[in-house]
Amino acid sequence: MTLSSRCRTGPVVLGGRSPHDDSVPSEGAPMPCSTPRIDACWQALLSARDHDWSSGPLAVDLAPGRLTMTGDATWRADPELDADSADLLDALLPILCAPEGCIIGQLGQSLDGRIATRTGHSHYINGIAARTHLHRLRALADAVVVGAGTVAADDPALTVRHVPGPHPLRVVIDPKGRLAEHHRLFTDGEARTLHLVAPGALSDGGATHLQREELAVAPDDALARAVIVRLREAGYRRVLVEGGSTTLSHFLAADALDRLHLLVAPLLIGSGRAGLNLPPIDTLDDARRPTCRRFSLGTDTLFDLALRGER
Ligand SMILES: NC(=O)c1ccc[n+]([C@@H]2O[C@H](COP(=O)([O-])OP(=O)(O)OC[C@H]3O[C@@H](n4cnc5c(N)ncnc54)[C@H](OP(=O)(O)O)[C@@H]3O)[C@@H](O)[C@H]2O)c1
């Protein structure tokens, strides 16, 4: 038997093809988002969600074989894992090992940094492997945060459906209390929902899975920080900021994110809604240059940016 042990920093592949394979798979080509080995590694990651890393590594049976995960986000497996299973662990284990928890943003965008056309059409920019990755992020998170604009535009469920795993708390930032009662998050009862509104914008009522709260702070970046403080105080340490662009930009500008997963699809939209909008800078000396790992996700590319300790 061979033993694999690693946590890589270079270009790697997640969800199918070699990083050097630039060919486009034919429509309908199978995406290895799920194989018995990938599924076993995913179950191992789910079992690591609540592990106390200060107590030592976590060893799990992979049937056949054994996987040992360590608090520094490295792992070793016996027998050696295939590349796709290894990449799954490499991409996601750092989120579970951060001692203070992890605030992670995600954004699916085109090569030219757009998330929708000018009419708001956006389904789908990313392929199924990237969308499965988003559901894995939700399943590993304690809470998922979206802005009022996303709920108004998409009426999302924000549940975990493409992979097995628990639903996170769904959090909506809606300062003006402008969202109508009929939205899925407020009515479906699929998972708990926290509706955050500014003082005075609170309406009564709602289903039992729904909690409404006032958040007494100034808007924008201060509000982004206050949401994280509120969630941390309630024990939600792993938070996925799913979008949209305004919300994610506020969290990034407020330096409230530990990591950012940019899911880049190989298309050029050329107009329409931009992904990130940050305060302007005059020279590239002021540009952020985070440490970056790159993974293939089917035809898309995941850029995993570590936003703490930037160069
Ligand atoms: N590609 C992706 O990965 C992805 C992911 C999610 C959504 N989307 C798309 O993004 C679009 C929506 O994006 P969006 O930028 O219009 O809306 P958004 O970011 O979902 O919501 C923005 C609104 O949320 C409230 N808000 C959130 N954070 C705030 C803060 N820190 N301070 C103050 N207000 C805050 C404000 O509501 P008020 O204006 O009421 O004050 C703000 O206008 C949709 O088309 C959706 O499909 C794409």
Mean pLDDT over the full residue set: 88
CATH 4th-level superfamily of the largest domain: Dihydrofolate Reductase, subunit A
Which structural class matches the secondary elements? alpha/beta
Shape: globular
Strand elements, count: 16
Q: Please tell me the total number of domains.
A: 2
Q: Numbering strands along the chain, what is their spatial order in the largest sheet?
A: 2-15-16-13-6-12-8-9-10-11
CATH topology of the largest domain: Dihydrofolate Reductase, subunit A
The largest sheet, given as strand count, sense and whether it forms a barrel, is: 10 strands, mixed
* N-to-C order of helices and strands: EEHEEEHEEHEHEHEEHEHEEEE
Bound molecules: NADP nicotinamide-adenine-dinucleotide phosphate
Radius of gyration: 20 Å
CATH architecture of the largest domain: 3-Layer(aba) Sandwich
The number of distinct helices, counting runs of at least 4 residues, comes to 7
Low-confidence stretches: 1-31
Strand content: 25-35%
Distance between the termini: 40 Å
What would you call the quaternary organization?
A: single chain
* CATH classification class of the largest domain: Alpha Beta
- The helix fraction, in percent, is 10-25%
